[in-house]
Amino acid sequence: MTSPTAPTAPTAPTITPPAPTVVVVSGNPRPGSRTLRAAEAAAHRIAAHLGIDDVATIDLAAFAGQVLATEHPEADAAKERLAGATVAVIATPVYKAAYTGLLKAFLDLYGNDGLAGVVAVPLVVSGNPAHALAGEVHLRPVLVELGAVVPARSLTVTESQLADLDGVIEAWLDRAGEPLRRATSLARVEEVVR
Question: What's the whole-model pTM score?
Fold first, then answer.
């Protein structure tokens, strides 16, 4: 007499989270700007610190004319890429003591919580040290409103510091590195749970 075989429980599908990425967004309306170069340098250093291999760049100047148009396929693709990032370096020159209209128009394409789960690093390039808080006062609240997690103070680079950009980034990362690591770890866990 053979014993009946016990039914096997169905197995849950294995979900592989997407590979972590760092995405740079430059809100400078000039293509190839110093803002873009500073943001890319910061993104590569942050990626190395967090053990992330994929770094992508979105230079809003490349499709600035589309951002306010009725149809904006390049902006839509950039919007999706940014929303899927693990870490986003959102960079702008200080413009009228705040951030550029181009960056504002791009971020306005998102609905509520459009950047939920993204760990964001506001980065501002300023000609005047008096504008050192522009990232904290103006850019951080917009990113938080869109659902991004901003675990560290903004990375502020004055024009006079551009010659020692690596030193500025390292000094910032000495303070911000651990909060970034913790926030990124939490974001990865939430991505797996979803």
Answer: 0.86
Q: What is the DSSP letter of 95?
A: B
Q: For 69-85, write each residue's pLDDT tens digit.
A: 999 999 999 999 999 99
β-sheet with 87-93: strand ranges across: 54-59, 21-26, 87-93, 119-126, 155-158
What count of other Cβ atoms lies within 10 Å of the Cβ of residue 108? 13
Residue with tokens 């998102």: 110
Q: What is the pLDDT of residues 145-171, one digit of tens each?
A: 999 999 999 999 998 899 999 999 999
Where b means 16+ CB within 10 Å and e means fewer, 19-56 reads: ebbbbbbbbbbeeebbbbbbbbbbbbbbbebbebeebb
